[in-house]
Amino acid sequence: MDIVVITTVIASLFLVIGGAEPLAARLRLPYSVILAVFGILIAAGAIFFLRTDLTDALNPVAEAIIGLPIRSNVFLYVFLPTLLFQATLGMNLRRMLDDWVPILMLAVVAVVVATLGVGYALSWTSALPLAACLLIGAIVSTTDPSAVVSIFRSISAPRRLARIIEGESLLNDAAAIALFGLFMGFVMLGVPDPSLGDALARFPLLIAGGALTGWLAAQLAVWVMAAFARYERAQISISVALPYLSYIVAEQSVGASGVIAVVAAGLTLNLAGPGRLPPQAWSNLRDIWEMLAHWAGALIFILAALLIPRLLEEVRIEDFVLIGVVIIAAILARVVILFGLLPLLTLLRLSPAVERPYRVAILWGGLRGAVTLALALAVTESFRVPVEVKRLVGILATGFTLFTLLAQGTTLRSVIAKLGLDRLSPLDEALSRQVVAVALQTVREDVARTTENYDLNRDIVRTEAKRFGERLDNAVKSAEDSVDILDRDRITLGLIALAGFERDTILARVRERTISARMAEQVLSDADRLIEGARTGGRSGYQRAARRAVVYGKAFRAAVVLHNRLHLSAPLARMTADRFEHLLSQRLILRDLGTFIDGRIRRIHGRRVADLLHELLARRIEGVETALEGLRLQYPGYAEELERRFIRRTALRLEEREYATMREDGLIGPEVFTTLSQKIATQRGISEDRPRLDIGMQRAELVRQFPLFADFEGAALKRLTRALQTRYVNAGDILIRKDGVPKSVFFIASGAVEVETAGQTLRLGRGEMFGQLAVLISKARRTEVRAIAPSTLLVLDEERFKRLLGRSKALQKAVRESAVKRGFSADMLLSKDTSHPATEPVQSP
Predict the structure, then answer these.
(1) CA triplet 159, 97, 90: central angle to 5 degrees?
(2) CA 74, CA 470: separation in Å to the nearest integer?
(3) What does the alpha-carbon distance between residue 398 and residue 305 come to, in Å, rounded to a whole number?
(4) pLDDT digits (tens, 9 = 90+) for 52-86
(5) Regarding predicted confidence, which is higher, 434 or 613?
(6) 269 with 89: CB under 8 angstroms?
(7) 554 exposed, middle or buried (CB, 10 Å; 0-12, 13-18, 19+)?
(8) Cβ neighbours of residue 762 under 8 Å, at least 6 residues apart?
(9) Using CA atoms, how far apart are residues 708 and 280, in angstroms rounded to an integer?
(10) pLDDT digits (tens, 9 = 90+) for 793-821
(11) How many C-alpha atoms does 588 have within 13 Å on its Cβ side?
């Protein structure tokens, strides 16, 4: 075929893509539906002009359209990796990981249920072998959530809900394509009734092999991209090669799932990229991939739609019955997931509660599209698949896709309107009226200053001021009619607004490079949790999310175990340095929120709500300062190094801004500006390097600060440092339970604990110890010790503590004083330890 004709057709398809988006917005229909309709109309028109006797003038164009080299490999090897890779790059993975249970369950279980449901329904109602029926089930189990997600975003649906749907769809496609490959193999081998156990047993191998291939490829790509730090176009070029090579290697060399490989590669790059690549390069990389995915998604829909008339050429009357069976079975399978599994996950507290209207919208919004047609095309192209199976696969997949696009897609917005999801709640409606009133008051003040500065005609100013005043009076009256907003609701709305402003501030700081790209995703995730916590749980939900931002997580505790037991310090050093930078970034952001409360929230929600928000903000600042102070005490000097790094980066940002201003004012030319910018970029690269944290040296310094260990020096201090183990605890963690016999003594490096014994409550802080009395009397006591703040403890086992007690006068004095406070005979306690002479050194562990 002439290359000029092919180029003309493809360029024309881009014109169609350009016109489809505004048309979809005008008709209020999903973008994918408009693309599919255009594709069908173009293909139908081409077939008509080829077969009509009216004219032959358009035959070359029609032949070019019909003869486009559209094969399943084009979809699977060119377009699909692009779509999947960009979807993983655009995800907030830290927030996705919070919901990995519902995402994984909905994705994998939904695919299996749909495959089995459709497969067995067809097996009972048709003459097809079971393997072919299950193959069709896998083909139609993929979903395209773009329509329902875009509508959810436009109606301010919960972010977490949209995130779960997006994550479920990504893994849904991956799992469905993996199952498709499995059952396709059975069909081509002529296995009519495969063992379900054997089929599902091979499924994890496909997943694991693909995941490992993608992870290794992405790790190599990130290493190379980091080495090319000054060459942004080289980094982007490597990122373009990554998904395709991952897919090909997994499929052709490893024999695993290429789709899983692409997803794993994208997830790995998403996690590692922000910390290894310059912020601007990472932002540009994501923008380019977003554009590539937009084109790929549009082309895959149009090109797949061009195949629909061809796939339906051999349709028979009885085939419509089977199409109906597929539709009913697929919808019922979705009902089982949305109204059976999802509520069960909510009861188990593994998934957010999804209200029934949203579940109905998700059910009706489960459109099928290009992936389904591409998989069906792969079956019809295979010469090893029986002819009747190929015919029915093409017809059933195409018929089901048309039903979802033309029946569900065109009515989705109407269904959402009937469910009432497109209307503001009474609370949001009342709030919107108050916001309008406050905004108009501010606008009136600003307009008044503007008219004075420009000395405008007074009559015009007076006329416009009167007109604006009438609008303001109506807005104020409407707001006063909405006084039925409860204080509890005002607090919730204020917290949502405060968390939203916090997120905007973080983005501004990232753009200014005051906050590093490494920390950007983490602090943004914290802000998202605050927004969702306030939406779902009000004040208590907001506070829970705020506490989560400063506590020691499971990954951190696992790193501590590796350090203490296996002496692997690298993970703990990295995560401790991350925690330092995270807390410093939080402190920087929290200091900017007070003015927002006074300037905006007070005017909308009143003084009482503003004062309460100030109180909550003060608690957050106190929690961050406490956690940061604990790290300062444990690692003296490191926080100062990070603060120096922050000052240097701020100075570079201001210097860069000054050069840009001089360039705009014409004070320096482009050559001078380019040279100065290159110098700034070099200095910024140096300032981005985070100082190294040496945990071993820092812990020795921490032990030296304890007054209890003041009489240890040299080799004895080193042996003591090795014997002590570090333990990190969160507020509420129980350290010693009632009637338990402690086997260790705890020294508080930072934070605080509360001791309940004999009806009394004592609080212990930095530099104090607990557990020593129970160890010395060697019997259970009705004492409970719990942390009341994130704390760092140094732990010494019973045997080493007794040896230490035998040689440390300062420790003996502390034990004696604590015994007297609790009504014990100090001399009796100390006399029990007679087996260890005072000269015996502390042994290394």
Answers:
(1) 60
(2) 62
(3) 9
(4) 776 666 677 777 777 776 777 777 788 888 888 88
(5) 613
(6) yes
(7) exposed
(8) 754, 755
(9) 50
(10) 888 888 888 887 777 777 777 777 777 76
(11) 25
